[in-house]
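Q: Predict the bound structure with fructose -6-phosphate.
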Amino acid sequence: MSNTFTKHTDRQNLTLCSDAEQASIYTARQIADVILEKQKQGERAILGLATGKTPIKVYQELIRLHKTEKLSFHNVISFNLDEYYPICSKSIQSYSYFMQHHLFGHVDIQPGNIHIPHADCSSDRIPFYCTDYEEKIRSFGGLDLQLLGIGRNGHIGFNEPGSSFDSTTRLVDLHALTRKDAEGDFGTIENVPYQAISVGIHTIIKAQKIMLLAIGKDKSQIISKALRGEISTEVPASLLQTIPHVEFILDRDAAALIGD
Ligand code: F6R
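A: Predicted complex:
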């Protein structure tokens, strides 16, 4: 792709793109390639998916590939990273609604193959529910690909600063900045849930391939910290510096502060 180039440094596997559109098209193509490769082998593609503003154009491109290039999702099993707690899965702020609206409602994925931490369960059932989510991922042989965005505080999934690198799926408290960033979706800060169910950092890094996509200048500072700063639980995404099977896909604005 003319506006994209991949840079393998001794530290990281970076793909720098001219703009958000190129970054999204590139990311969607990588996801489509995993799905197609698995189809060739007669296997299922186990995808870890993200929500938020960042992947919206990726999902638009996947829908385009489905509609115009016959990319089928019949072999896809999906596991979303997270969901607010508590929230009704039918609410328009829920990640269930988001995924249906931005991807699943437009492609031929089988409804029974979709997994999203569902936050309708009672609080005493959450630990069982989280163990079960991990077990389901394991039962499919783990994730073939995990798509990630990054929060302005360095969170991946809703693994907020301070999350253990060994963490698995669990109930988490949302950081004040994360709640602030969600305020627009919920109308007022009071309406933003204080908690979420999130897969853990350990769950994420076990995926065969990880793609972290960051778009826009709002992400430039945290990208510079995550890729060039100290590895610390205070910046959960910084752990990805140590993982060889991570690809960072950045548009020009998100990459502005990383230097060479
Ligand atoms: C969403 C998720 C979060 C987002 C992050 C960035 O499922 O896991 O880590 O990827 O908060 O959100 P946006 O893309 O809205 O900037």
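A: The chain has one domain: 4-251.
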